[in-house]
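Cross-posted from the bioinformatics board.
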Amino acid sequence: MKFTCLASLGFALLLTVGLAAAQSSQPAAPPAAADAGAAAAQMALARQIVLHGSPQGAHACATCHGEQGQGRIKAAFPHLAGLPRGYLVRQLQHFDVLARDNPSMQAIAHKLTSTQIDALATYFSRQVPPPIMPPATPPPALGTELALQGRNAVPACVTCHGPGGRGLGGALSAAFPPIAGQPAVYIERQLKAWKQGQRPPGPDGLMGAIAKHLSVAEITAVSQYFAAQPTLVVASAPEVKP
Amino acid sequence: MSAIMRPRARMRSLAMLPLAALALSACEHSAPPQKNSAASAVAAKPGKPAAVAFTPPPLHAIPDDAFGAEVRKGEALFRNTAAHAPQYVGNTLTCQNCHLDAGRLADSAPMWAAWVSYPAYRSKNQRVNTFQERLQGCFKFSMNGKAPPLGAPELVALEAYSYWMAQGAPTGARLIGAGYPKLARPAQGWDYARGESVYREHCALCHAADGQGLMVDGKAWFPPLWGPQSYNWGAGMSRLDLAAGFIKANMPLGNGNNLSDQQAWDVAYYIDSHERPQDPRYMGSIEATRVAFHDGPYETYGRTVQGHRLGAGAGVTGGSTVEHMMQARGAAAAPLRD
């Protein structure tokens, strides 16, 4: 495994902005020239809600997720920047119908119209994910093993979440979100939510089935592993698939 | 907001609980009898010894000595076959694609169970085969490559890995979780259209509508199920009973034992109704090859499905580009894009 870690390097980040932006642009989004005006209006609508909330009373997303959807690691607010558009839409729908548990997000999603959800998902999918600080201590061996090799009936997480947990991209991005660099506490909470049936199990029940096989110790370890992974890589370093 | 799809009610068997193999296999085999006919073997048929539970040692227990180094070589080859045995591999598959968790997972023909089962008589070549000869078979057919010569370093490494994993297992015993589960012949036979709909619903997301899987960083991240880069017409997976057993226990990935037996048979038939590389034992015509090697009830080679006579083979020149794969997937994955 060789990750080119750029966490601390604002400079390197600048270099990759173009690349990341290209990667995070979603297949469903390309506006034809004639629609450029509509696309700009969509972005304006999204920014308005992100910064000031919606007329229907949804809170400003920026308060918790940051203006560009950078998230807040300390508070375990996930970053939304660079997450696939289709994935974000699905989550907001799941909050809306109370299938995914979280009272604040449920209340917020319930106040959003589908047009607003579309606009917000498009907006956040186009932002660059935050750089991740490498942890002082390396993640536990158990977490690394689960992430890269899997164990028993649990396949390696990277099989579905892509190299380094940065997603599979392309047409599969909506199904399999990137998980690299999300707060450890957040990842842990999701895995436990699946175990307890508080989050829909995802496309074809895949993620829910996997989480049910994980022990509490495995959940903690693998969450720490992915929280420590960079969201971006500078050059594509060769990585070993399990 | 439109209503979301409710999580399908699941009949998850206890087999997957992360318990010791003892408990695991106990659950596995007390499950509904139609699931796995090995269950009856546990209740010792007269004359047949009862199957024995076994758990392989954890990978971190591989010793740090010269023998351990060989074991690790075998493990690496198992996970990343083309990288470590390029001259013997003719497709983009790896051993672990069909023997999950690097050959450790019960019900995916694990290597620890295989090790204690050889030498064994095989009807495939009508003589007693050593373990190395069995390995040769998977290179030639499943990997659509060439058999490494007996004693080749690649075979020695795989042998060391399998032997190490099987330490403590009784030689010659029938171990619970060996091979793929054997499913009873389905009441409704098998059907292409039903198989296709199972495929679209549960498989195409990863293996793509055109069966070519997904390449990431030059690797078959989701392996191809047919076409020039998949297993050839001589491979075990081209037999419906073996494919259905594998699929039932192991697919969709991470969510095994959720398809019904009927669905597993139907989708196995659908997959094995597509062209793949020619059987290396090809005798000059499809018919001659069919009669010689594919006359069994679980073979599709040489049969006509959807107006096409199977067995023409799929040449390596017809390989899909990534763009082609993505396009094919686009159609299948559409519901996941809003």
